[in-house]
């Protein structure tokens, strides 16, 4: 089985979630958050390269998924989108990206970069959405690095 497991349009950039397979009720809020993040980032000048890039690691070992892969000029940007409902007792959306999640994102990014013989400069951004308020979207460029 291939290390690369892509969903959607065969690895091509996709627009809003209406272009993607039907979501379960549990997936819908996350897809809506990704749509909001995508629209915000495109309004800031970033260009979509790929969406929901997934890597499988094997039985019992979680792989990684990158919500959005975009270009900011010459920089390739791997973007994690996190959302939390208003009044969540589990901390804000930004605080929900712990060390294990960062490691899975880095793993997926490294696998993605295997397709590029001369990879461009890269960074990891975070889009945190707290509540349903449109003002609650927080884009954090270079939120962490691959160390």
UniProtKB/TrEMBL annotation:
Pfam families per the UniProt record, alphabetical: UPF0102
Entries under Gene3D superfamilies matching the protein: 3.40.1350.10
One Gene Ontology term of the molecular function aspect: endonuclease activity
Region ranges (Disordered): 1-29
Keywords from the named record: Endonuclease, Hydrolase, Nuclease
Annotated family: Belongs to the UPF0102 family.
NCBIfam families, per the entry: PRK12497.1-3, YraN family protein
PANTHER family for the chain: UPF0102 PROTEIN YRAN
Protein name: UPF0102 protein EV685_0653
Organism expressing this protein natively: Sphaerotilus mobilis
Native organism taxonomy: Bacteria, Pseudomonadati, Pseudomonadota, Betaproteobacteria, Burkholderiales
């Amino acid at each position: 089985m291939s290390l690369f497991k892509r969903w959607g349009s065969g690895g091509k950039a996709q627009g809003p979630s209406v272009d993607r397979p039907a979501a379960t009720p549990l997936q819908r809020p996350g897809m809506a958050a990704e749509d909001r993040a995508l629209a915000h980032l495109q309004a800031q000048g970033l260009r979509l390269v790929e969406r929901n890039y997934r890597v499988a690691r094997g039985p019992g070992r979680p792989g990684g998924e990158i919500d959005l892969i975009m270009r900011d000029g010459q920089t390739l940007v791997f973007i994690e989108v996190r959302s939390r409902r208003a009044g969540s007792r589990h901390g804000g959306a930004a605080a929900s990206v712990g060390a294990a999640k960062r490691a899975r994102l880095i793993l997926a990014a490294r696998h993605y970069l295997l397709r590029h013989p001369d990879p461009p400069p890269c960074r990891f951004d975070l889009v945190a959405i707290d509540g349903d308020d449109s003002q609650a979207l927080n884009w954090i460029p270079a939120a962490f690095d691959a160390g």
